[in-house]
Write a structure and sequence with these properties.
50 strands; Immunoglobulin-like; mainly beta
């Protein structure tokens, strides 16, 4: 196999009128060996194929590459026709030059996309013999590939392409020729052009046949270029010539990190040239100044379109990142992303940057200051970059949501996504971790805690948690709510120590969240306002931990936990039915009283007369701490609250602390019959 590498390629196509009896494809393909870049290297001829119409011609002709075209490679189609016809540009293609006449010819081109079809189809307005040649080249400027064109026409055997003048050094020049001559061929291409195709129509009437040909050349210096070929037979002919810009060999050569400034200048250097920099909190802004070296063909002003990408280094390298987020190089956005562009208020995106004495340098090469950038894409609008020089760009960036202790790598690529020819360095930054902090910590909102009898109450300690690396860096929070006498390291105990294993984060924005830790406090938790623990208080601590394990703790100002005196009793005492002058005897009604508070209590009792059709005095009711016979025992109830003698200890668990009062009643003689009711008052007292 032969490998052609060119700096500028010129192709000339020749068509000579010949009619073919059947369709034929002619292929000349030079595949690239493995490892040779197919884009953005020195221009390379990749493959070609040609086809002609059969029979007496037609209005449509297709040709199919032997191999699928590579994305970002240049595709060229040269179509010639024997008759005066209008040639339509294929969908998605662009016109280099298109001329009707006898014969007619056009040169079309496009940059291959992802999944580019292998077949190219061209249509014309008048049925005629057609010859189609399609070409693939690598290493062409994908942003603005087409440069100039020219043409010529005449009759005879000396067939010329016309003349064009390239606008820059290093271009691919392609010439195509068509001759209305039967079974002719081309020879003696001038000016160092290399023939790529030479074929004829082979069917139909001989005077409707044509011969087609093409040649190319890589040219160095900008200037005028033309070629001429000799046709074996004389005939009317047309020649066209087109030039295409070769992609400059750009290398990512060196870089420097700077502090941000609200201007086209930068702040102080954050690290030495080509050194990794550490940035911290989300919202931190910084600047990257990056040099791209031009290795061969100059880059004309606004002659290249580029964009900046980044990737998380992860477990790989900057050249081959792996396992991070994003795991592959991704375009930097102005709107979102772990690292994104930053919009400074004053300088405009694309403005000329202001040079700095600390700007990066590269092997003593001339540095061409280009632009300040706040968004993709970017170009060299400030000036051309000659071969051997470096262009300098300045990027304003911000840590938007980058993960702590992660490394991020940066690279420039062409706006099409094709990579540069090489990467001598990759700018790299590390997101350093700063520990979180807590402020405004409060237990129960700073108020004394009042429990709920017989059940639990939600009591919270809350604070504002702040992480300089952004609220997404919070990993967890825990808390302990405790009586001061047992300390924050206490073992969980429903009387004096509540551990909250998982707290909630809410109202998160920027670097902060509200962290809330809630415990379900039992009704019997130790009071501190009076009693045994009057010299103590209740405290609440919060500990917040970030994703790198850094933590912060805070203790809320002390609050009291109020004493709760409370009991639960049956709703009623039902004495049943009795006759006047009788009593309940040895049959007692029991009242089970439960301590539902957090202190030891006594049980005073009192009552009122029972009323109905008549009155049963309050003293007719008796109570006792044990069962009794009405006529021989019990204590008469009075209207004055009187200690019953029943004492209940402070609960220390959910196991009920209970006591029982026994009740009886006597009905005086002469009491009218009927239903009687009244109120007995049972009190929880110190």
């Amino acid at each position: 196999m032969m490998l052609f590498r060119f700096k500028n390629i010129l192709i000339a196509f020749v068509i000579s009128a010949v009619v073919a009896a059947s369709f034929s494809d002619m292929l000349r393909m030079v595949p690239l060996p493995s490892g040779v870049p197919r884009a953005h290297a020195a221009a390379t001829f990749v493959q070609t194929i040609s086809s002609v119409t059969g029979g007496n011609g037609g209005t449509t002709l297709s040709a199919t590459f032997a191999a699928a075209p590579a994305q970002n490679n240049l595709l060229i189609a040269v179509i010639g026709g024997n008759a005066n016809t209008v040639i339509s540009v294929p969908a998605g293609w662009s016109t280099g030059i298109n001329q009707s006449g006898t014969p007619s010819q056009a040169i079309f081109y496009k940059i291959a996309g992802a999944g580019e079809p292998s077949t190219v189809t061209v249509t014309v307005s008048v049925s005629t013999h057609l010859g189609l040649q399609i070409y693939e080249y690598g290493g062409i400027d994908t942003a603005t590939p087409f440069d100039q064109s020219g043409s010529s026409a005449g009759t005879g055997t000396a067939v010329g392409s016309g003349t064009l003048t390239t606008s820059k050094n290093d271009e691919l020049v392609v010439a195509g020729l068509t001759v209305n001559a039967d079974a002719s061929n081309f020879s003696a291409w001038t000016n160092s052009f290399t023939e790529r195709n030479d074929f004829s129509s082979k069917t139909g009437v001989s005077n409707t046949r044509s011969t087609f040909g093409a040649a190319d050349r890589i040219v160095g210096a900008a200037g005028a270029y033309t070629t001429t070929a000799t046709s074996a037979l004389s005939g009317a002919w047309i020649g066209q010539i087109a030039s295409f810009r070769i992609a400059s060999l750009l290398t990512q050569s060196t870089y420097q990190w700077f502090a941000n400034a609200d201007s086209t200048g930068v702040g102080s250097a954050l690290a030495a040239q080509d050194s990794v920099v550490t940035v911290f909190a989300a919202g931190n802004t910084f600047r990257l100044r990056l040099l791209l070296h031009v290795a061969d063909a100059q880059v004309l002003t606004s002659g290249v379109s580029l964009k900046l990408q980044f990737a998380a280094k992860g477990t790989g390298t900057c050249a081959a990142p792996a396992g991070g987020s994003p795991a592959v190089y991704t375009d930097i956005s102005a709107a979102a992303g772990e690292v994104r562009y930053y919009n400074n208020p004053t300088p405009a995106d694309g403005a000329a940057l202001t040079a700095n004495a600390g700007d990066p340098t590269h092997l003593g090469h001339t540095v061409v200051p280009e632009s300040y950038e706040e968004a993709n894409a970017f170009t060299n609008a400030q000036g051309a970059i000659l071969s051997g020089q470096d262009g300098l760009w300045d990027f304003a960036l911000v840590n938007d949501s980058a993960l702590n202790s992660s490394n991020y790598c940066f690279r420039a690529v062409y706006a099409t996504g094709a990579i540069l020819s090489s990467y001598g360095v990759y700018p790299e930054l590390t997101i350093g971790n700063q520990p979180p902090s807590l402020s405004g910590t409060a237990l129960n909102g700073g108020a004394a805690i009042s429990l709920v009898e017989g059940t639990t109450k939600s009591v919270s300690v809350a604070a504002t948690a702040t992480d300089p690396n952004g609220f997404s860096d919070f990993a967890s929070a825990t808390s302990t709510i405790y009586r001061s006498g047992v300390g924050a390291a206490c073992a969980a105990n429903n009387s004096n120590c509540y551990a909250v294993a998982s707290c909630s984060f809410s109202s998160c924005a920027g670097n902060s969240c509200t962290v809330t830790c809630t415990a379900s406090m039992q009704f019997f938790a130790d009071p501190t306002d009076i009693g045994t623990f009057a010299a103590e208080t209740w405290m609440g601590t919060i500990t917040v931990v970030d994703k790198q394990g850094a933590s912060a703790s805070s203790t809320a100002p002390a609050v009291e936990l109020n004493t709760l005196y409370a009991i639960s009793t049956p709703a009623a005492i039902n004495y049943g039915s009795l006759n006047p002058s009788t009593d309940t005897g040895a049959t007692n009604q029991t009242m089970v009283i439960t301590n539902t508070g957090n202190a030891a209590i006594t049980i005073p009792v009192s009552g009122a007369d029972m009323t109905g059709p008549g009155t049963i005095p309050v003293s007719q009711q008796k109570y006792s701490l044990s069962s009794f016979t009405y006529s021989a025992g019990g204590t008469a109830l009075t209207a004055v609250s009187t200690a019953s003698g029943l004492n209940l200890a402070k609960p220390t668990s959910t196991t009920p602390v209970q006591g029982t009062l026994y009740w009886g009643v006597g009905v005086p003689n002469g009491t009218p019959s009927g239903s009687y009711g009244g109120t007995n008052t049972i009190i929880a007292a110190p």
